[in-house]
C-alpha cells in the first residue's frame, strides 16, 4: 500500500489515512520526546534512556507472550523501571561490568519472551520482534493514533508543569533542597515521565532507536542556546521537524523505513549544529588571540602594586 501510494506524489500525501495517522501521532510523540529529552540531557541521564530502550523491548514481548496488548507491557515495564531508578538515585549507579551484565540479561529475557510468543501464541509470527525493535508508525490506525496523541499531550503538560522546579533541582540540587524543593520526588517523577515517553517513542521509531529521538534534538538545543526555556522549545521544534521530515522522506522513498529516516534527520541536525557551533567558537577564539584585550598603564601599575603588597 505504501509503495503504491508514493507514486501519487507529495501533494496527495495527506489523502492517505495511514499518513494522516502517522503525522498526527508522530507530532505528539516527537514533542514529548523533545521536551523530556531536554531535561534528560541537562541532568546527564541520557544513559537512562538507553537502559529503558532495553526494558521497552523486553516489556512489550513479555506482554505478547502472556497474551495481552504489547502497549501494556511497554508502559508498565518502562515506567516501573524508570521510577525504580529514580528511587535508587545515586545508589543505583554501578560499574560497567554490572551495567553490561544487566543489559544483556534484560535483552536475553526479551529474546526468551519473543521465542515463547512465536512458538505458542502466534504460530511462528516473527514480525512482532521487528515491530517492537524498529517501530511501525505507518501501521497505526485511527484509534491508536488518538491514544498516542492523548498520552503525548499528557506527557508534555506534565513536563511543563514540573519544568521550573525540575530545572532548579537540575542546576543546583543542594540549593534547591535547601529551599524546600522536593528534589527526590521530582527525580522519581521525571524518570517516570521518561519511561512513559520511551514507551510512546517505541511505537514510532522502535525500542532500538528511541534514544536518538530523545537525545539528538535535545543535544542540538543545548548547543544552540544556554537559556533553558528557549532550549526546551528548540528541542521540541527540532524533534517535531525531524519527525515530519523523516515521515515525508519515507513516504517518497517507501523502501526506506520511517524509523531510519526520522533518526537520520535528527542525527544530521545534531551533527550540523555541532559543526556550526564548533566553527563559531574557533573563530571567536582566533579573534581573541589576534586582538587581545588592552590594559591601561594605570591598571598595570595597580596590578603590580597589588602583587608587591601580597
TrEMBL record:
It is a multi-pass membrane protein. GO terms for cellular component: ATP-binding cassette (ABC) transporter complex. It holds the Pfam family ABC-3. The chain crosses the membrane at residues 18-40, 47-66, 97-117, 148-169, 181-198, 204-221, 233-253, 259-281. Keywords: Membrane, Transmembrane, Transmembrane helix, Transport. GO terms for biological process: response to zinc ion; transmembrane transport. Its main location: membrane. It comes from the Bacteria. Residues 285-310 are annotated as: Disordered. It is found in: Cell membrane; Membrane. Belongs to the ABC-3 integral membrane protein family. This is ABC transporter. It comes from Candidatus Protofrankia californiensis. The lineage of its organism: Bacteria, Bacillati, Actinomycetota, Actinomycetes, Frankiales.
Amino acid at each position: 500500500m505504501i509503495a503504491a501510494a508514493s507514486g501519487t506524489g507529495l501533494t496527495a500525501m495527506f489523502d492517505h489515512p495511514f499518513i494522516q495517522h502517522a503525522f498526527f501521532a508522530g507530532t505528539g510523540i516527537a514533542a514529548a520526546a523533545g521536551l523530556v529529552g531536554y531535561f534528560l540531557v541537562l541532568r546527564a541521564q541520557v544513559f537512562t534512556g538507553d537502559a529503558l530502550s532495553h526494558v521497552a523491548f523486553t516489556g512489550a514481548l513479555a506482554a505478547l507472550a502472556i497474551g495481552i496488548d504489547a502497549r501494556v507491557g511497554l508502559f508498565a515495564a518502562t515506567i516501573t523501571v524508570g521510577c525504580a531508578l529514580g528511587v535508587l538515585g545515586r545508589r543505583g549507579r554501578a560499574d560497567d561490568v554490572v551495567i553490561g551484565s544487566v543489559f544483556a540479561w534484560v535483552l536475553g529475557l526479551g529474546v526468551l519472551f519473543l521465542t515463547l510468543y512465536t512458538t505458542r501464541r502466534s504460530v511462528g509470527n516473527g514480525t512482532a520482534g521487528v515491530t517492537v525493535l524498529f517501530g511501525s508508525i505507518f501501521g497505526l490506525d485511527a484509534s491508536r493514533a488518538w491514544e498516542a496523541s492523548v498520552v503525548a499531550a499528557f506527557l508534555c503538560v506534565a513536563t511543563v508543569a514540573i519544568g521550573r522546579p525540575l530545572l532548579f533541582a537540575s542546576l543546583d540540587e543542594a540549593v534547591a533542597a535547601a529551599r524546600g524543593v522536593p528534589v527526590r520526588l521530582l527525580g522519581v517523577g521525571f524518570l517516570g515521565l521518561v519511561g512513559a515517553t520511551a514507551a510512546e517513542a517505541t511505537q514510532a521509531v522502535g525500542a532500538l532507536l528511541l534514544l536518538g529521538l530523545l537525545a539528538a534534538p535535545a543535544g542540538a538545543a543545548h548547543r544552540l542556546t544556554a537559556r533553558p526555556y528557549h532550549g526546551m522549545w528548540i528541542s521540541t521544534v527540532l524533534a517535531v521537524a525531524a519527525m515530519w521530515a523523516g515521515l515525508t522522506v519515507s513516504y517518497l522513498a517507501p523502501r526506506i523505513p520511517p524509523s531510519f529516516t526520522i533518526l537520520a534527520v535528527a542525527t544530521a541536525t545534531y551533527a550540523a549544529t555541532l559543526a556550526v557551533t564548533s566553527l563559531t567558537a574557533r573563530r571567536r577564539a582566533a579573534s581573541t588571540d589576534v586582538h587581545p584585550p588592552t590594559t591601561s598603564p594605570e591598571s598595570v601599575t595597580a596590578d603590580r602594586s597589588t602583587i608587591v603588597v601580597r
